[in-house]
Structures are given as C-alpha cells and as structure tokens.
C-alpha cells in the first residue's frame, strides 16, 4: 500500500480522487475513517480500500486528514503502530510541527496545507518539511501535491498566512460566485442562466490569471473602460468596503489558524 489517508472527509477525498485521476491505482490507496458509512461510500465511489489504523501505519506515506482537534488522538494511536521508514504527512490547519513531531519522536513528518481544487487537479499546496524529513521525503510529498496541482515549499511561520489565501481561499471565491448569481437573479435572469454566466466567467477569468502572464491589476484594468459599466460596479464594491472586507477576512483566517494551535 503506497498511501493511507486517515480521515477520509472532504479534503481526504479531494486528494485521493485527484491522485487516482492522475494515475495512482485505487488499490494503492487505503483509507481509515471513523465512519463506516463513509468508508463504504468511498470504496464504492473510488475503488480504494478501507483498512484499520494499524494496517494504515504500514503504508509508505500516511496522510493525516482528520480535523485539527482530532489529530492528537490519532497521533497517539499511530505512534506504536508505525512501520520503520513510514512518512507521515499532516494536512491539519494550525497544528504545528512541534506537536506532530512531539507525538511521533524520530518519525519523518511533513506539514502540508493543500486546497480543495486538488479534486480537479488544480490544487495549490504549501509544504513544510519537519526536522527528520530528508530531501527524498520532501520530494515524495512534492510529487504527491504536484500530481494534483502545484506546490511550494515554505517556512512554517508562513503557513497560517498561506492557509488564509490558498487553503481557505476557494471558499471565498465560491462565496463571491454565489453572491454574483444572486445579483443576476435580482436583475431578472433565471437561476440557471445566472449560474452558467457566472461559472464560465470564473473559468475564463481564472484561465486569464493563469495563462496571460498579466497581473490581476492589469487584467482588471483591461475590463474597466473609462466611464463605463465596470467602473460603476467597482465603485459600488469600493463604497461597500469589499476590498477592506477581504483584507480583514484573510487576517481573521490567519488568526484562526494560529489560534487552533493554541499559539
Ligand atoms: N476542507 C478543505 O478544503 C481543507 C481541509 N484541510 C484540513 O483537512 C482536515 C480535514 O478537513 P475536512 O476534510 O474539511 O473535514 P471532514 O470533517 O470533512 O473530514 C474529517 C474526517 O475524519 C474522520 N475522522 C474523525 N475522527 C477520526 C479518527 N479518529 N480516525 C479516522 N477518521 C476520523 C471523520 O469521520 C471525517 O470523515 C482538517 O485538518 C483541515 O484543517 C486542509 C486544507 C483544505
Ligand atoms: O476551514 C478549515 O478549517 C479548513 C482548513 C483550510 C480550508 N479548510
């Protein structure tokens, strides 16, 4: 077994589905979940194999994808089961290497903050290797994350801020999409029409950000004709303090991530 995902919830499933889409054999992925129903669901949906924690501890890489407050219990249960050489990856927001490595002395641990678009191969992940992780371990994790999108290796000091942009960021964009769709409905469009218009506008705009080589500012200016419709809309967003709201949202997210670790 190559990979074991412990906690096969929303993010655990996004990662394993992304790895399968990228070519990993489902039989090489094991899952452990507290909910039997969830295990059956994912076995049926993806062809992965449900196992217990002791079996998962013998995988080449164990990915811990339970909630932050659940991770210490899982680490304690895992400690005596881990096979020699097993690499442990934690994707839990806000749980520092100090806690992970303190619970698993001498074990190679890597902290990762992935994001939900890994599900469609367009994820963004931050990677922080722990003290016992070798270059080979870091390369393994980079390979796993790059298989479902992109990654960058960063300092742990930046991981709360990274969480506030790429980790939680997809939710901010879905929230904006919801609000725009609602705006279209308010202006008389059907919900189906508004949804198609907004979803494709997100797809096109994201592709321009990724492919045009131009900054977000340059692209926004390109759409903003002097005295035009966009300028009127952006003025309304400024009047409602939307930019300031985003600055505060990112700050609150970083602080929440920091508080999760009791720091
Ligand atoms: N949802 C997201 O977009 C992202 C989540 N994360 C991190 O991923 C982790 C999981 O988050 P979600 O998937 O959103 O939560 P979730 O609640 O959807 O998944 C957690 C899963 O863990 C299972 N579980 C609970 N206790 C367990 C135990 N002792 N052993 C095995 N399984 C157990 C639950 O049944 C559930 O299926 C969190 O630590 C979060 O910080 C990181 C980046 C993005
Ligand atoms: O909301 C959360 O706590 C998780 C971590 C990053 C995205 N979702």
UniProtKB/TrEMBL annotation:
Pyrroline-5-carboxylate reductase catalytic N-terminal domain residues: 2-94
Domain Pyrroline-5-carboxylate reductase dimerisation: 156-260
EC number(s) per entry: 1.5.1.2
GO cellular component: cytoplasm
Matching SUPFAM superfamilies: 6-phosphogluconate dehydrogenase C-terminal domain-like, NAD(P)-binding Rossmann-fold domains
Keywords linked to the UniProt accession: Amino-acid biosynthesis, Cytoplasm, NADP, Oxidoreductase, Proline biosynthesis
The keyword DNA damage belongs to this UniProt entry's keyword annotation: no
Subcellular location: Cytoplasm
Gene Ontology molecular functions: pyrroline-5-carboxylate reductase activity
Pfam families referenced in this protein's UniProt entry, alphabetically: F420_oxidored (PF03807), P5CR_dimer (PF14748)
Superkingdom in the source lineage: Bacteria
GO terms (BP aspect): L-proline biosynthetic process
Family: Belongs to the pyrroline-5-carboxylate reductase family.
PANTHER family attached to this UniProt entry: PYRROLINE-5-CARBOXYLATE REDUCTASE, PYRROLINE-5-CARBOXYLATE REDUCTASE 3
Known role: Catalyzes the reduction of 1-pyrroline-5-carboxylate (PCA) to L-proline.
Protein's recorded name: Pyrroline-5-carboxylate reductase
UniProt organism field: Tessaracoccus bendigoensis DSM 12906
